[in-house]
């Protein structure tokens, strides 16, 4: 079977990537590429798009039209088929920084005591102690003003229930399903990315309008 006379290039952009500031951005960083004939893949993937600079800020938008224009210069006359997203959001990282242990401890303490106070305030609002006293009285037949055994079991149950609900115990997961927190973080990241993309498109539109007026 002979190779087609017109090369066909399939491009699928990543939705979001991270790169170090100052690195030369290439097509292989932002997209998956398949070519027919296959020999063109390396040539397309190694094509340079731009040099990332400090003035680009922390987020850089790469549009599929930029990719198409670059490929057409490399492989003139090629048929380009795009799949999936029409843009890639590039997060530029200034330099590698080791995780701050003091910041980790501070955030951990803040979350721990914040969660503890939230639970205690909720229990105070609904008078949970009286509820426990009534439950113990119903089960045993006598009233205990300090049902410590029941409260201890209840406290352990809260911790176990949260571990099951969030599908996590330290680094171990009960199954491969995403936790509710992971789903919420994923949706939040999608909204942030969409907002950043819209803002970047608006900025580009204003720059083109301003240059057109000149």
Question: What would you note in describing this structure?
Answer:
The protein is α/β, with parallel strands linked by helices and 214 residues long. The protein is 51% helix and 19% strand. The protein has seven helices and eight strands. The protein has helices at 27-30, 41-45, 64-74, 101-125, 128-140, 148-165, 180-213, and strands at residues 8-13, 16-20, 24-26, 31-36, 48-51, 59-63, 79-83, 87-93. It has a three-stranded mixed sheet with strand order 4-1-7. Strands 2-8-6 form a three-stranded mixed sheet. It is elongated, with a radius of gyration of 28 Å. The two termini are 54 Å apart. The mean pLDDT is 83. Residues 8-93 form the Stage V sporulation protein AA domain. InterPro entries: SporV_AA (IPR021997), SporV_AA_N_sf (IPR038548). Keywords: Membrane, Transmembrane, Transmembrane helix.
CA-based gyration radius:
28 Å
Number of helices: 7
Major pleated sheet: 3 strands, mixed
Q: What is the typical, i.e. mean, pLDDT?
A: 83
Helix content: 40-55%
Distance between the termini: 54 Å
Compute the number of strand runs: 8
Gross geometry: elongated
